[in-house]
Design brief:
With about 90 residues, this protein is of the alpha+beta class. Helix content is about 45%, strand content about 15%. The chain has three helices and two strands, in the order αβαβα.
């Protein structure tokens, strides 16, 4: 929740659209554990995320987080938290 609040405050300070920007923001998360998962889920509620990048030492764990998020997204009907995950 603290990361989401900090993100929301930072975005409100810089609410001017960036030149050449299309859609939402890119969220880069370092790690693929529970803390990364919770950061992603919380920040989705305060920012328009158009792309998610997961950086992790092991590709397997990053892939598992990606698959879990994709699975949850298929059952999600809230457009506010519909982040394209690639």
């Amino acid at each position: 929740a603290g990361s989401a609040l900090a993100t929301e405050m930072a975005l409100s300070l810089n609410n001017k659209p960036q030149k050449g920007s299309v859609g939402g923001l890119t969220l880069v998360v370092f790690g693929a554990g529970l803390q990364a998962e919770m950061h992603i889920k919380c920040i989705q509620h305060v920012a328009n995320i158009s792309k998610l990048v997961i950086v992790n030492r092991s590709i397997g764990r990053a892939e598992r987080l990606k698959e879990m998020l994709l699975s949850e997204q298929q059952h999600n009907t809230d457009p506010k938290t519909q982040t394209p995950i690639t």
